[in-house]
Amino acid sequence: MHVLIVEDTAEVVDIIDVSLKMRWPDCEVSSVARGSMVTGILAANKPDLVILDLGLPDMDGLELLADMRRVSTVPVIILTARGHEAARVRGLETGADDYIVKPFSASELLARVRAVLRRAESSARMQNAGQMLSGNLTVDFETSTARVNRDLIPLSRLEWDVLSFMAHHPDRVMVHTELKEKAWGSSLVDDSVVKMCIRRIRGKIKDVGGDPAVIVTYRGAGYSFQP
Q: Which residues pair with 224 in a beta bridge?
C-alpha cells in the first residue's frame, strides 16, 4: 500500500508515517509540502490513499482536491484544523472520502484509513462488466461512470460508490445503515451526511438532463434505485 501525505508540518507527517507503519509494516509512505506537486505524483506513482491538509503554503487544499478529482478517483482523507461544519460539508462535497479534524489520535486515524480502504476495495470488486439503465441514465460498472445520454455525470468517488451500490440492487430499499457500511465503511456516519450525498447525486443527474427521481426516498426507511 502506498499512502501520499500532503502536509507542510513535519511533525504531523512523522506521526502519520509512524502510525501507518505500526499498523501496516509494509506500507510505503511519501509526503509533499506543496500542493502544486500532487497531480504529477498521482499520475506517476498512483498512490492507494491521499491524506490531505487544507492549509498548504502554495494553494488551498480544497482547490487542490477539486483538481485531483478531475484526474483521479484515489481515496482522499482530509486532515485539517478547520473543524467547523461548513468546512466539513465543503470538503465532502468537493470529493473527500472522509474528514478528520486536528488534533487527532493515532487510533482514530487508523480506523478512518481502514474504513476508507475497505470501501475502496469493495467498490473495486463491484466494478464487474455490465450496465444498469434507467430511462436515459446509464450506470456503467465496467468504466465506473454514469451518463445521461452521452453526457458524463461528474460524480465524486463517494457519490459513485453510493449510486453504483444502489444500481447493483435495483428496486431494493437501502436503509441508511446499509449505505453507510457499504459506501462509507462505517455505521457511525451521521444520517445527514447520507442525505446530503443523495441530494448531490440527484442534483448532478438533473444538471445533465436526467431524472433525479431515479432515486426514490422512502421516508423513515431509506432509498431505492428505480430501473
A: 216
Residues 139 and 40: their CA atoms lie apart, in Å, by 29
Q: What is the CATH number of domain 127-225?
A: 1.10.10.10
Pairing of strands 222-225, 215-218: antiparallel
Query: What SS3 class is residue 46?
Result: coil
CATH 3.40.50.2300 domain locations along the chain: 2-124
Average pLDDT over the chain reads 89
Q: How far is CA 206 from CA 84, 140, 152, 192, in A?
A: 29, 18, 12, 21
Superfamily name and number for 2-124: Response regulator (3.40.50.2300)
Share of the chain above pLDDT 70, in %: 96
Grid coordinates in use for 143? Answer: 468504466
What residue ranges of the chain are covered by domains with CATH 1.10.10.10?
127-225
Report pLDDT digits (tens) over 134-158: 999 999 988 889 999 989 999 988 8
**186 near 115, Cβ under 8 Å?**
yes
- Kindly indicate the confidence band of residue 213, based on its pLDDT and cuts at 50, 70 and 90: very high
In the β-sheet with 98-101, what is the strand arrangement from edge to edge? 28-32, 2-6, 49-52, 76-80, 98-101
Rounded mean pLDDT, 73-86: 88
23, 117, 118, 207, 220 from 111: Cα distances, Å = 10, 10, 11, 35, 29
* pTM score of the predicted model: 0.63
